[in-house]
Amino acid sequence: TAFAEAQRSVAAALAAVPSQTANSKERKADRAKYEDLPGAEMGKVVTRFPPEASGFLHVGHAKAALLNNYYARAFKGKIIFRFDDTNPAKENAEYEKVILDDVARLEIKPDEFTRTSDHFDYLIECAERLIREGRAFVDDTGVEEMRAEREAMQNSRRRDATVAENFALWEEMKQGSERGVRCCLRLKVDMQSKNGCMRDPVAYRCKPEVHPHTGDRWKVYPTYDFACPIVDSREGVTHALRTSEYIDRNVQYQWVCDAVGLRCPVIHDYSRLNLVYTVLSKRKLAWFVEQGLVDGWDDPRFPTVRGMLRRGMTVAGLQDFILAQGSSRNTNVQEWDKIWNFNKKVIDPVVPRFFAIAADADAHVVATVAGAVGERAVSVPLHPKNPDVGEKTLYRGAQVLLEREDVALLKEGDMVTLVNWGNARVTALAPDGRNVTLTLTPDNTDFKNTTKLSWLARDLPAGVAHVPVDLVHYTYLITKAKVEESDNFQELVAKDTKQVTRALGDPALRTLKAGERIQLLRRGYFICDRPYAGDGQAEPMVLIGIPDGKAAGAEAMGAAPQSNAEKKEAKKAKEEGGAKKEKSKVKFNKGGGAAAPAPAPAPAPAAVPASGAGAAESSALLARIGEQGEVVRSLKAEKKDIGEALNVLKALKASYKELTGADPPAPGRGASDKKKKGGAAAAAPAAAAATAAPAAEAAEAAKSPELVAAEAKRQAQADKVREVKAAKADKAAVDAEVKKLLACNAEVEALGGSLGGAGGGRTPSSRKSRDKEKAGQPADEASKAAKAAKDGAVKKANEEKKKKQKELMEQQKAGGRSAMLGVYGCTKESDLSDWYAQVITKAGMIEYYDVSGCYILLPWSYGIWDTIKDFFDRAIKSLGVRNCYFPMFVSQAALEREKDHIADFAPEVAWVTRSGNSDLDRPIAIRPTSETVMYPAYSKWIRSHRDLPLRLNQWCNVVRWEFKNPQPFLRTREFLWQEGHSAFPTLDEAKVEVLQILDLYRRVYEELLAVPVVPGRKTEKEKFAGGLYTTTVEGFVPAAGRGIQGATSHGLGQSFAHMFDIQFESENGEKKHVWQNSWGITTRTIGVMVMVHGDDKGLVLPPRVAVMQVVVIPVGLTAKTAPEVRDALLAASKQAVDSLAAVGVRTELDARAEKAVGFKFNEWELKGVPIRVEVGPRDVEAKQVVLARRDTGEKVTVAVEGLAGTVSALLEQIQRDMFARAVVERDARKKQIAAWDEFQPALDAKCMILAPFCEREECEDNIKRDSTQTEAADPTAPAMGAKSLCIPFDQPALAAGTKCVHPDCGLDAKSFTLFGRSY
User: Fold this and answer.
1) String of b and e for 254-267 (b: at least 16 CB within 10 Å)?
2) Which of 256, 395, 500, 768 has CA 20 to 30 A from 663's CA?
3) 282 an active-site residue?
4) Does the annotation count 964 as an active-site position?
């Protein structure tokens, strides 16, 4: 059908949308999944973007516009831009101009511009027709009363008015009379509906106002909900994209179309965009403008399109972010750092780099550069990796300006890098940090382990000057991450959301134009908001900071980035904190087993005066250092200059070091650190305690009696909390004691005490602790326990909420009937991974195990493996293959004997390193494959040509410790397989077997599993490591658009024979090496079968492998059924089972009385039983039964006589039909192409691609690299490009001179090769 043909082209159409920017190829992996549009046909899709001209477009509108444009262009259709001007009070001509300009800024070019007002005449006709038909009525009920009636599901008193009465009031409305303005026109739908949107919604309102486009012609105006579906249909819209907040109104949309007799467009829902710390309501945004809290609608703090572009967002970055959201219906709150991270990917490769140094004399340092000779003006690249950006003139000199914060982190002897100049050593540095000498080291080009410094030459040539720059950073306007409907947003307005820093800029900045983006090295990205007016002008250049997406929270919205000093201090603090928590780490050797942890270095004791005046003085200095450190941190937090305070802090630290001979301890490191294992404090001399003793004694003496009592009470309560936790008391008891402890804490703080010491963890002066508490990070163990309990409850509630939502969704889909037994919350098409996991577990195929990647195969799946095993075992025995068994353990020496072969398996090898409590002398591997296990024995057994051929097979398990997204059957850490290993005297004999076995594998898939496969040869890149060549049967999963290796038969050649010295003496006495093969098929077969045939109800099993082929279910029994009828029905059912079993049909009777018939039907459909036989009382009388096919759902009534033959024939028909359908679906996804520009669209359409190929490994790598995309069908899978699946044996004609498909190759193709994404 046309519909089916259109669906097959959907994914290809979506993939064909052209990239927006030059480097968008690198960002394709960020694209999200786009759901197929139901009923879409190429060239016929029409979408629309209908904004209301009542404000500026914001990022939510941008998502709607870009999604509609995306689908329209994907299907080569058109997009209509329509102003929704149904409300004259909100319509504004100025806003129309703004919105049109914003759409142009988004690079959207609508095919048609319309207004809802263009259709006012027709909408009036529709309304009056509905009045005449009695499907609409005029209501003069008051607003509040109407709301109450709708909530109570009570009809309006005007609902049953006559047509004449309704038209009389309708005329009053159209004239805008005093009575008319109190009326509205309502649609007569269903006041008893559980959906409030269907309780007689309003279609028209009386608003005697002047419309910007229709003037005063109309006094009545339609509601959006009434006008939108009608106008959509009239304008030819095929797909109405609406945010999921409208999902309850979808039925109303359809009702309106049906009521007026118009075609209803397809409604396609997607999630509304929500962002943290942001309001998107036009009303709320307008309030910020009216209050003067922002500069206007284009304020960089605003989420409007203009505000974001002014902030430095690029259209390409915004598009990528929107496209990454996809058309998913999942509603969540996005972080701003994500959207800015997309923008960074766009601008980083192309923006020029410049320098800027803080302008305040106290914030920068003049440094002398020794060895600064040569040209003062040099040309340097504006971008280190992109020469196309251009060059700038950089001025060097004997003295340069450095950031004071950077200098504060240096010490004599450090090696630094002056960016765009070279390395230099710090040869002189005064204690106050003002006199700095850097000596250039031209021969040192190691830039990896140096501190990078931004700099500007202090002295510039005549006519050249630094550019004065104001660096502006913004933070959120709202203080709450998620603003709820119940919140008063005006109470959540943040203060001081704009910070300005004056700086001296690179002279090359003077040519920067408004709107151009740059990077100031080590300061971040900026956009020019106001260019430099010229030397001598009062106005500096204004650069607005562009967030780079690295940090969450306020910093992601553009708070000033950390300086070098702040970053290093943070890193140091982190390292110190990490040292306190450091535990012994165990390293694992390649060969298995654990290596002993490296011993920690012994801590050096601090040199501190033991007692006396020196101890008192050092204690006082430490106290002053702590206070001054707090001052510096406070200034930093408030984004104020820290230069002077930092100098004071450095001077205090220098005095301490001069007095004690050691650096002062890091903040927060004290006596309590002695308790930490391996901590430096543990080895400090006892004198260190004496240092702090005088200060501690003085502090204790200063405490009031009330504070002493409160602290004692608090300590006792803290002990109580620890006791109840240690006793593992229930949560209520712990919470009660914690609550008491928090009250004690508050009492101590109110009296001016600290919460440090044995029971606490902070002091009132600790800003860091206060900030942690504000952020919800408790400062003591008790608070942590309370928070953990709360978080656990919240998490559990959220999980329950999600679970109920999924259940409700499925119940609604089934018309209210619970579908918990089957697959719910997803479909095979929408979420293949979730669907697959539900099917194989609910159908009873596997049980999850407590070792990740390992699974219990239940009888329902193992029975399928039994069938495969029986078929294949009989076949290979008829060829002369015999079964055997080799141990699963492999010595390390044997495994590594052939390094090239085992290299592919090395990361997956599992090792046994212990026996009980004892370490093994040598680790032992668990086989990943058995070549290295079996071939040493082959070398012993084979001596003469009489010993050949040797053809052995073993049914066993292997272990490959996969860490890449384990999936039951498809990719597991342990799996079942057969592996055959044979040796022949000649290559020709070996080749014959390779193809014999491969054909048996084809038959397993096609004749047993009804799964079509492509036989072929692997490329050199994909062949078995160490082998001569590899043949394969390649399956395909259409729902995922991925190929899957079904089974392989390898021609190993003689490489293993040489490695393991497998020789034989020929008939003429000559020593020769054997020719070997290996071949295997695994339980992966079951997973492929499930994915190919399964549907949204569950498994669909091919009859030949189904554990149960037929289930017989008695139906029609009720509590009133007579006993004799019941007995006759059960007897007839049993007779049907016996007759089928007698001819070998695997049949079971389901006569469970405790389960309803509907439950049984659903359960056996889920489990995929091919035929259901229904036997009812009337069937018994008529001597007939009903057969229901699982694969098609078709039902047929057949006579009991000859039932066995009928069912047997039907099972074979089902087997053939399933295979035929799978072939059609597979072939529809197999595309033969000739050019590279056809490759990516076909790949993204979930197709396998048959393309001309040169068969070179290098070219294959290029194809995979250049086709890498996000695999949409399975969100847990990694991004991947196309790999070669096989070179099919069935080759299309290859014309002479045909080139390889990759555009960079240029060589002649050797074959048509099958490419695709693969499991």
Assistant:
1) ebbbebbebeebeb
2) 768
3) yes
4) no
pTM over 0.85: no
- How many angstroms separate the Cα of 680 from the Cα of each of 166, 270, 605, 606? 89, 57, 8, 9
Residues paired with 527 in a beta bridge:
517, 544
Q: Distance between CA 810 and CA 1230 in Å, rounded? A: 34
Pairing mode of beta strands 78-83, 846-848: unpaired
CB-based burial label for 1186 (10 Å; 0-12, 13-18, 19+): middle
Round to the nearest angstrom and report the end-to-end CA distance of the chain: 31
pLDDT in tens, 414-459: 999 999 999 999 999 988 777 899 999 988 888 888 889 999 999 9
Q: Give dist(CA 42, CA 670) in Å, integer.
A: 72
The pairing of beta strand 1075-1082 with beta strand 1014-1017: unpaired
Residue among 648, 637, 503 nearest 562 (CA): 637
The answer to whether 959 and 910 are in contact (CB under 8 A) is yes
The string of pLDDT tens digits covering residues 1152-1200 is 888 888 889 999 999 999 999 999 999 999 999 999 999 999 999 999 9
Q: Which of the following is catalytic: 282, 306, 1018, 1229?
A: 282
Instruction: Please tell me the total number of residues recorded for the chain in this structure.
Output: 1319
User: CA torsion 30→31→35→39, rounded to 10°?
Assistant: -170
Q: Judge contact between 1319 and 1092, C-beta under 8 A.
A: no
Q: Across 382-449, where does the E strand assignment appear? A: 391-395, 399-403, 415-418, 422-429, 436-440
Local structure of 470: helix, strand or coil: strand
Residue type, 971: R
Catalytic residue among 33, 90, 242, 272: 272
| Greatest distance between any 2 Cα atoms in the chain | 119
Nearest to 1115 by CA among 1153, 1148, 1141: 1153
* Bridge partner list, 48: 80
* Cβ–Cβ under 8 Å, residues 556 and 567: no
DSSP for 189-240, please give it: --TT-SSGGGSS-EEEEE----BTTTBTS-SEEE-HHHHHHHHHHHTT-SEE
C-alpha 349: how far from chain center: 24
Residue 1189, CA atoms < 13 Å, CB-side half-sphere: 20
Contact 983, 949 (CB under 8 A): yes
Condensed to tens digits (0 to 9), the pLDDT of residues 701-727 reads 556 666 777 777 878 787 777 777 666
Q: What is the pLDDT of residues 183-214, one digit of tens each?
A: 999 999 999 998 899 999 999 999 998 998 89
To the query of whether residue 272 is one of the catalytic residues in this protein, the response is yes
DSSP H or E run through 1080: strand 1075-1082
Find the catalytic residue in 27, 31, 48, 52.
52
Confidence (pLDDT) at 757: 41
Q: What one-character DSSP code corresponds to residue 923?
A: E
Q: Token pair of 780, please?
A: 């003591």
- Sign of the C-alpha dihedral computed for residues 114, 115, 121 and 125 taken in this order: positive
- 229 CB-near residues (< 8 Å, 6+ apart): 240, 253, 254, 256, 257, 262, 264, 265
HSE-up (13 A, CA, CB side) for residue 899: 0
